[in-house]
Amino acid sequence: MTLQTDVAAHYGRDELLARLDAALRQLGKDPTRLTIDDLAPIDEFHARGREATVEIAAALPAGITGEVLDIGSGIGGPARYLAARYGLEVAGIDLTPQCVATARELTRRCGLEDRVRFLEADATRMPFASGSFAAAVTVHAAMNIADKEALYGETARVLVPGAAFVIYDILQGPGGEVAYPTPWSMDGRTSFLVDPPALCRLLADAGFEVLEIRDRTAESIEWFEAMAARAAAAGGPPPVGLHLLFGPVFAEMRDNLLRNLREARIAPTLIRAVRR
User: Fold this and answer.
1) pTM for the whole thing?
2) Which residues, including other chains, have CB under 8 Å from residue 229's CB and lie 6 or more apart?
């Protein structure tokens, strides 16, 4: 198997929509008529969830005209948020066929299919003409991409000069090797973390100017601790949550994330950059 198929297999879970529909009904929701808030507990699939998505959106410049690219869009949460809250047009790309299919269906159920589209595509070989997008975001995706030169080079290629690029990813911390499993890798074979200085060099080489770096480790620790406390108090996770994506192993993944965060093995980081 190639790296791309390994990554797609990690995230591609069968019957995700069926499990989600059952969980939504348990909460008294109609799965055929949804809002982005109904889906936030599962499709904000990154450290700090909706809180981080709000920060990512706010890091984009006001008044964007043109389509925004979401690189590694998963099942579509951030893309739908940008469309619903800011009226933006968004194209999301992801390697995993199941994620793309689920993103399209959830977007249709939210009534946002006229603003958001999803494509199955490799972020290191994007199927777009140069200068196609007015801005780009990527949320917890580069951890699974080995060829970061190609990733950021392709991002620069498809953006217009002066376009904003907002990155929110898990970076390598100074505390040592990551403990697995984590939500992005079961054993580390599909994990390719870089530290902040290395990422800044990669971005500069690709044609970006880094404007700001925000370490969100402390906030992420607080968020995961609160998630674990709620699950313990309730005797298990809520009906709709990230466990639907991974099943019982998610509890171990969450515990490892907390350990990795507390021991400075990883650093969730938001970076604002601009295409030169």
Assistant:
1) 0.95
2) none
